[in-house]
Design goal:
This protein has 13 helices and 5 strands. With 285 residues, the chain is an alpha+beta fold. Helix 2 packs across helix 3.
Length: 285
Amino acid sequence: MQQDGQLGEFLRTRRARLRPEDIGAAPFGGQRRVPGLRREELAQVAGVSVDYYTRLEQGRARNVSADVLDAVAGALRLDSDERAHLRNLAAPGQADPAPTQQVGPELRQALAAITSVPAYVIGRRLDVLAWNDLARTLVIDFPAQAPAERNMARLTFLDPVARDVFPDWEHKARETIANLRLDAGRHPNDPQLAELIDELSKGSDDFRRLWADHDVRGRTRGRKHFRHPLTGELALDYISMRAPDDPDLALIIYSAPPGSEAADCLRLLAGLAPGTRHPHPVNLA
């Protein structure tokens, strides 16, 4: 992954989202051939010269100050995740060793104790590193997969079962891309991440389409829809908690409001053998 090129593409896609009236800028004259702000308009709002912004977008600016990045981020109306991604892309690339991530015995013990809701641990590159029995039943039978295949991006884009497991597949795909983009910005020289992105690009037209949008987002909570043959579709709330000693490690826990239909479905699935998926849906009414 060439960091200079990623920076330019990110800035161009963010600039294309905005119009002069969105940020209170006076539009420059002439017919517009492309959507979004022109470089001149963005530079005017950010308070930098057009030449300097052009060099920044072309990857030719070096040692960009934090003040300039903040000004450009403000002009582009970037959110906190996008601002962090911009800073990562603008920083000089450094050697980025990728040590094997380990899930400690305490976390594995906690996962085993969570029996009523699905939970799993996700690491760098969206690798699934550990899980409980209900996650195996609801999502996919992780132990049945080769270790290299236990990855949420590979599952989403390369495994046909994903479109059955995630009924709102497009939303799931965009969320996956946005998280993977954050990883790519934080770890630009991770060879395994580069190999994963190359594999996904070659294997999925949808991945190439969504990757080109350069969306970045790190969700810590939200709602996700699943489909299981026994229960049908169910909506679950989730929360993501980062490990304080390894920010690339997160515990994801799903739950449902007490007394809800989704909570009843989870109780039913919790009684199944781990990894069980039935061939036909069952009407629970």
